[in-house]
Each structure stands twice: as structure tokens, then as C-alpha cells.
User: What shape does this take?
Amino acid sequence: MERMISRPKAQAQAFIILGFLALVWGSSFILMKRALLSFPPFYVAAFRIMFAGIALAPFAWQYRKQFDRRLLKYYILAGVFGSALPALLFAIAQTHINSTTASLLNALAPLSALLLGAILFGVKPERNKIFGVMIGFAGAVLLVIAAHGDAATPSITWYALLLVAATLCYGFNANLVGRYLHTSPPLLTNSIALGTLALVYGVALLVFNLAPRADAVLPAWSSIAAHPLFWQSLGFLLVLSLIGTAFSNVLYVKLIQISSPIFATSVTYLIPIVAICWGLLDGEIITLLHTVGIVLILSGIFLVNRRSAKH
Assistant: This one.
């Protein structure tokens, strides 16, 4: 049975963290788009994980006495499915799909958490949670329709399947953390998870750059550094890594621990709202479909958490 948000203080904290993560991750698609101006997708994913892993490395030592070797495989799996693999899938997809559409498709994560929780983890979600997820998903669909204007033939490509796969990763990771790592300090969880994957990505980059004819598969570092927008893209990548990955992932693990996997992944329903706000700042117009979609999303999140507050 899922853990519930049981105390008013924890409930308030959960909503504050949820809002902060929505703001940060809703902006991460723009940051990723800017980083991709000079970095290829693999480099964006690799440096995102490497920078985050380096930033969190000191906390692995700080919490070393609380490290349980029996949980090592779960730490690594959390790193793979919660950060490393989705970062690569999103980077590849955003070379063909705009950042707003990517953020909208990302709203499939709560549904993935619900389905994978029931199929793989034996979670029996309450009726109100299922209803809340479906309402929130309906709101996300309306935002997709609004984003494409004429929804008769939305311009979704096969690269959208990569984003669907990424949301399945998020759903699996949320259940994994909720089941096996719910008592592990968030900083310990992420420092080990991201630190391990940072080493993997680092070795991969080294091999690519040293192997003969590797530039036929991946651009050499020298050619990337020569790009006129290199330093600007690197700056966006640093912000994406340190705030959008390292710091936010720590908060996300904390959110799962004090609430539930489904509630935590509800942040992906709020992300499109942030993306639309970015669009407003860029001169875009909010339509009636946008408004209805946002209302449905907020209603879905309320229903997902409603009964939890009563326990």
C-alpha cells in the first residue's frame, strides 16, 4: 500500500517542493534547447549527469555511515532510470521536437508511475488517485492540442516515442525510490546514483574522444569547443546540471519520501504550465483550451492527494 501524506506540515512541505520542482523543470526544456545549439545530444546528457555528480560527490562522504551496500543496486538503478537515461532520451528528442511539446508529453509520467506501480510493484492505487491521474492526463492532452493549434493532425513524430520511454523511466524510478530507498537520505541517494553514472558517462566520453575515427560517430571535443555559441551553451548546461538535475533530484527524492510516487510525479502535470508561462513572456497567447487544461491539471493533482491528507 502506498505511503500517504499524513501530517499537515509534511503536506504543506510536499506542495512547496512540488511547486519549486515544477518551476525548475518547466524551465529545463528551454535550457536544454539552448545547450543543444552547440552540444550534440550525447554530450548534453553526459555533461548534465557529470556536473551534477561532481556537485553532489561531497555528500556521499558526508553520509557514508548511512550507506547500506545492500541498496547499491537500487541507487544505481535510480540513477539510470531517474536521470541518466531520460536525460539522453530528452536531448535526442529535442533535436526534432520543440521544448514546449517535450514538456507537454512529459506529463505522462504520473500515469506511468500508476501503471508500473500496479504491474511491477504490486501497488493498489485508490480510486481517487486513478481518477485524479486521468483528469490530469486529460488536461495535458488539451495543452498538447492547444500547443499545436489545429489538432486534427498534430505534428508528433517518432521522436515523441523517446519522450514516452523517458516518462516510463520516471514512473519506474518513482516506484523504485518509494519502495526501496524511502528511508535513505536524499543527498546520499543522489550523490551515489549520479556519482556512479557520472563516472560511466565520463569514461564513455573519454573513449569517444580517444578512439580512432570516433568523430564519425560523435563530434570531437575540439570541434564542439570551436562553435561560436560554445560558452553560452555551456553556461545553460551548467545551470541545467546543477539546479535542474543535482539540486532538484535531491528535492524530488525527498518529495517521494514524504508523499507518494504518484503525487511526486504529478509535478510533470505542472511543468507544461511553466512552459506556457515562458511562452507568454515570449509573446504567445493563452487560449481557452490552455485555461481548461490548466484547471484540469490542478484538479487532478488535488484528487491524487486528497485522500492522502486524511490518513
About this structure: Residues 158 and 277 are 27 Å apart (CA to CA). The radius of gyration is 19 Å. The longest helix spans residues 230-258. Residues 8-310 form one domain.
